[in-house]
Amino acid sequence: MNLSVAWSILRARGIVRRAGICLAAYLVAFVWVMLPIPFVTVRSVTQITMELLAEPFSAHLIGCDFCGVEGIRQFFSYFRLAALLAAVLAHPVLIYHFLALVSPAPVDPKRLYLTTVAMLASFTIGMLLGYIVVLPVGIGIMINWNPMSIEVNWRFSEYIRTVSTLLVCLGLAFELPAFVSGLVRLGVLTRHRPAS
Length: 196
Known about the structure:
- By secondary structure, this protein is mostly helical.
- Helix content is 74%, strand content 0%.
- The chain contains seven helices and no strands.
- Helix 3 crosses helix 4, helix 4 packs parallel to helix 7 and helix 5 packs across helix 6.
């Protein structure tokens, strides 16, 4: 099969259009989180998120601060967090088009929307639970656990990477049951045959 035949098959199934919509949603979300919100704030969504993620750390260490903030690491931390935020914001569009792609041809749009909303709600609940419950306890353990009384200095970029990865993983873990039940509801999987 040559490239033009493969491209026409992909275009006929609507994959190219769906991929374009998902890419456009991600790029719009990326630009939105990178730039300050006009007439609302002079800070970007990424800067506000960095401050929110640093709150559990500063609650445990009064008077202490992050150490070793290098300019280039700060720069890459900002872009990494912005890319992750854009993926989280574009998540509903990605979910909807993925489910529309893998589901059988005659799909009830209400079921597709319901599955997308259920997955988004469970993802959001997982991230909120992680931020409110798991993150403060985990940060407290990581800061106060020191069996040899060694001074631990946290780099801001490593902290942001750890915390953001933890929150997204908790969101995905909470989303997984809704994802599987949504695939069953859409007819991709059955209760008796989870995978073939």
